[in-house]
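Researcher: Checking consistency across runs. Here is Fibronectin type-III domain-containing protein again:
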Amino acid sequence: TYNYSVKTNWQDGTSKTDVVPATILACPPTLTAASGCAADAPGGPKIDLSWNNLLGIQNYQIYRKAQAEANFSLLQTLTDAFYTDYLVQSLEYTYFQGGQVSNYVKAIWPTDQKDSSQITKDIPQCPPFLTVQSNCDEFSIRLSWTATKDATHYNIYRDGVYRDSVVGINSTSYIDYQDLSSCPGQVCSHTYYVEAITPGSTLRSNEETKNINCTITYPPSTPTLNTPSAFCSAGFSYIHLSWTPSDNVSYYVLYRDDGITLTPLQGIETSRDDQVQSNRDYTYYVEAVGRGGPSLPSNTQAITSVSCTTPSASTLSYSKACQTGIPTITLSWTQTTNTESYEIWRGPSSSNLSLLTAFDKTAPEFTSRIFKDANLSPSTTYYYKIVSKGPPGVSSTNSNIISPTTDSCYPTTPNLSNPTPLCTLQNPVIYLSWATDGANTTRYEIFRQDVGLIKTIYPTDPEFSSKNWTDNSGLLPSSPYNYKIDAVGNYDFQRATSGYKPVTTNNCSPAGAFNLTDPPNL
């Protein structure tokens, strides 16, 4: 809110300053989206989102509805005005099936929020993104790539010559075993690319050149352990781990801080730890093992396993208010167990609710469990519920549904007392007074029916609190007048009027000269 003032100066040196508050409107972000194919790792289809950066913003929330999903869900919370959604990572098991992705951005201020328009993009068909590793344990070069939508098979090329093919859209790896004819002396270099064959086109991957030298037995290169994820499946707690591939590897060994070791299959860079207890901290690292011995240990990653119990139900309550002429509803809810995020759903009826906003553990609202909804219409009933979201694979729980009706946010109608005629220095004046609690009132406007608006009283004026004013503006004696008072809210259309009340001025002229005679004798 900003205050604007107008200062009036008179020729006699006096002046008066009137101050009017104005609230700058919260405008929704303008979202743009572009779909494309990532030229660098991780490759595959991507959606680039960007929007205008807004003044005073607390953060932005990105919501997404992908492919067959029925509702939007929170994808990311951030303060930047751009984001790239790499679908190979965020839709790991379905990105190659095509379909559409819809997004919108929610701008969040401390006391308001606004949604951008929704933008829907087709998931593009992208060429394979190729990575290669050498392996002297089996004297081979291993290839892996991202899947391509509608691919029936993939052709593998080495040094520009067709080498082999694999069938199926998910057949995205190949081992090119070397021999002394293709790699004399076990030292050579090859360049590879992959073609995805679809019914309508052929899409070629990036080229990757790999050197291999198996005359010396090297230990595997050190893998990088990615951020693990915890989830539930069929009521059991699991931790999913993955890491970057190493050269010269026969197999990988995962180490856990409590002495448990997990040995995945040869050539597999993922593992699922099913020997975990709920709500327990674990730390992992991985080593690659080959003919040259083990690699150096990878980086460590810590994670807390999740409980697979359903979150408890919260109890939702509310309070109502008006903020600079805008109705607000403040929601508060009780804490729930085993909850990763809270979703607020709102709608025009209990059977027609949609996702309004969501708060994960990084949001202050997750801890305070208080949210002020200021994007509302006056005198309107809204329905709300809180959805407590558990860990992945755990069912959500709904709170009770509430149905508050917003306030009108109009000022309280002033009760104008009957105007009182008085005399001041032999001039007629009218004394006005009124009663009101002053709710939602930013100024009073006093009207005299013969001339219209004659006085505006602002909060800085003493009459604003005393609720009285005297009209001495050229009134005629013994003449009828009508007065009314309007209480005005934050917007000019927000008015409450007392209605006109009549009054007749006094004749304030002094009495004329007269002679007093003695009374007659009786």
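Researcher: Does this match what you'd expect to see?
Model: One thing to look at in this run: The chain has five domains: 31-122, 130-213, 229-304, 316-398, 415-504.
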